[in-house]
Amino acid sequence: MGINLLYFVISVILGVIVNYNIDFMVGTVCLFTESIWGINIMKQVIVLLLSGATIPLAFFPDTLRNIINWLPFKSIYDAPLTLLLDPSPAFEKVIVTLGTQLCWCVVMTVLSKLFWKTSLRQITVNGG
Hints:
Helices cover 71% and strands 0% of the residues. It is mostly helical and 128 residues long.
């Protein structure tokens, strides 16, 4: 269980980075719409459902779970909890899980930077 805690901490840090980048991209999209409330609510629903926070991913049908495995949302809640709760995770499984999270961190960071560069042209400032 001691090594699981280390894996869990690393996985949580990577999950926070993925979640931050999702929030950042949604925030930059709101520069186009000038309203964040509805988009943020939809983002929360999607993230909480597809990350395993509302319903554990193990309860999803196989086809839906296979689709979710290819999305970044699993990295936010399901991956850290899986690493923490697995009594003796295989080292290969740990490497694959953390590697997948790291890949999503890189991809999401690059995407969020692209979103920011594109959205920067849309900024409107009101007032004096």
